[in-house]
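thought: fold this chain, then report.
action: predict
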Amino acid sequence: PYHIICMQRLGMSLNSLNRTNRYSKFSLECIAQIGFDVLKQIENLHDKGFLHADIKTDNILVRYSMTNNRRIIRRSDLKKNIYLIDFDALRDISYLTARLTEKEPRSANS
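observation:
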């Protein structure tokens, strides 16, 4: 018996894109779109009760389109194409909240 996992193929991380495209910078509009999409992904996780504890540019992937064997990144390509990965450090918000509320408040003298 074989066990198989099928996953969607994603593009480069923001960190890799930044290193490989060092001569062409992202436009302000593109950066704003990426930031908005990342925040939407984080909000979606929080709504489900989870906290991503390792957000960094290496853990944000951009799906890319292939044209003439080159990776093309345009604002239209980024819409709904930002993905968070690496959920090893994922935390349950309800557990963290319960631990914070269990602790006794500090007294004014300590």
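thought: worth noting. Strands lie at 50-52, 60-62, 65-67, 70-72, 82-84, 90-92.
final: tokens above.
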